[in-house]
Every structure is written in structure tokens, then in C-alpha cells.
Amino acid sequence: xxxxxxxxxxxxxxxxxxxxxxxxxxxxxxxxxxxxxxxxxxxxxxxxxxxxxxxxxxxxxxxxxxxxxxxxxxxxxxxxxxxxxxxxxxxxxxxxxxxxxxxxxxxxxxxxxxxxxxxxxxxxxxxxxxxxxxxxxxxxxxxxxxxxxxxxxxxxxxxxxxxxxxxxxxxxxxxxxxxxxxxxxxxxxxxxxxxxxxxxxxxxxxxxxxxxxxxxxxxxxxxxxxxxxxxxxxxxxxxxxxxxxxxxxxxxxxxxxxxxxxxxxxxxxxxxxxxxxxxxxxxxxxxxxxxxxxxxxxxxxxxxxxxxxxxxxxxxxxxxxxxx
Length: 324
Prior knowledge:
Layout: H1 2-18, E1 24-25, E2 30-34, E3 54-58, E4 61-63, E5 67-71, E6 78-83, E7 91-101, E8 110-116, E9 133-140, E10 153-160, E11 175-180, E12 191-198, E13 202-208, E14 216-221, E15 232-238, E16 245-258, H2 272-323
Antiparallel strand pairs: 1-2, 2-16, 3-6, 4-5, 5-16, 6-15, 7-12, 7-16, 8-9, 8-15, 9-10, 10-11, 12-13, 13-14
Subcellular location: Membrane
Membrane topology: Single-pass type I membrane protein
InterPro entries: ConA-like_dom_sf, Intracellular_Lectin-GPT, Lectin_leg
């Protein structure tokens, strides 16, 4: 029994060593660092049936082994999911796997991705509050009044805290950028959205819905909007007379750094504070990496020692049973 327990613990440590949070650098010199505080994956909830980093409400249902369902395929529902802490990274990438599906031939209304000062506030804009301050990305599946536009339609809106969403015209007067995405509802492949932001440099939205590992560019701009320095990451959805299931499958958020010195905020002339901050961050990460390495090694040797003690006891017990 001791041997089994010790070897099980050893297996858990081996898994932990084999699956750390991975920091990577791509061919363009962009380093990405995972942000646990703004990422989600099954089973979504901790042992106390709460999420450490996210709040949810409205008609949201958590199916721990499959999805977070913002709305079910029923009329007049709304649900939301918001981070508990703001996303303060200067540059970031958010990749969301989602699923929009239902039984009816007619369906609606859609869901939204938010980066706003407001959080966890139900309202008429895809289940969240109107007159928001920040960025909203709307996945609109029902066409109200927008001639010449193919639906589903994905659009970005930049809110200033006073501007109201033009719901009757599907946000036509509010659109910052957008694209048609026919086939994103009920797709045969995992549907994903990847939003990449570099402050004062670029904003890009890519979608996966035609084939797996194939990204379609929805929009990209070299003049991105200013996102509030304190902005919460959120998701919301709503149904009206028509309905759909709106599921969030996973969220992966990463902090981005340009290692080749092209970061528009870290390398602006005279922006010494940002440079010093990045130096402090690098030193902290380096020290933290060594500390974590020694901690893992210590755990490894402790588990190995426990396994040896358990194995020795087992052999002694076996020897005594043989003598009888």
C-alpha cells in the first residue's frame, strides 16, 4: 500500500514536471507568457465549486467536463462570465474556443467578448451592460436590419462610457471593424477566436471555423483603440424570442513581449520607466525560474525517498510472510 501511494505521488510529480506553463518565443521574436489569471479550461471550478479567477452569473451553467454555457437553447436568457482581476498586460493574445449551436432553423442572438472597465453587469448588449467603456467583440447570429451584410457577423465596438449600442441596426453605427463569418455557427470543426493586441501598434482578430488549424483574418489595424488600463476580460450572451446554446470551451490568455526591441511602449524614446520595469520583470522571472527549478528538484528527491522507504517496508513485510 505504501509503495502504491509513493509511486502514485511520483507519477503526479512527473506529470507536473512534464506539463509546466510554457513560455515560448516565435520566429518573429515575440515571447508569450501564459496568464493563469485570465485563462480557463475544464473542469473550470475548484474544489469549493467556485472559480478562483472568474465569476459567472445569470443563466450561466457550468458543465465541468465540457463547457461553460452562457445561455441554453431557450428564449429570454442571458448569462455572463468575467475575470475577477483586470488584464493589465500592455500587449496580449486571447484565444477562445467556443461553440454556437441549437436545434432551431431560426436562432439568436449571439455572444460577446469584453475588455471593459465594467464587469459582471447584466444588460441589453448580448447579455451585458450598455454604455460600456472599452472594447467589445460581438458575434451576432441574428440579422435585425443591416441590408447587404451576411450573417453571422463579427464586429468590434469601442465604447467611451456614453455611447449606446445601436441594437436595432445590428451595431452598424458603432462598428470599429468587422467581418462576415458564415459557417461559424454549428461548424463541424472547433470554432475559435484569437484576439492579438499591441498597445499603440496593432489589433488583430482571427477566426477558426472552416478547417482545423486554419485561421481566417477577420480584421487588423495598425491604429488600434486605446483600451482602459484597468479592463476586465469577460464573455456574455443573450437569447430573445429565438435562441441558441452559447458555450465557452476554453480561454487561453498570454502576455506578449517583443524580444527584438520593436515593442512600441517598452522602447519609446524617453520612456525610461517602462524600460526599468521590463528589467525588473526579467530579473524577477529569472530568479523565480531558478527557485521553481530547485523546488521541483526537492519535491522529486522527497518523492523518490518516500518510494524507497515504502518499497523497503514492503520487501520486509513480504520476507516475514514467507518465513511463516
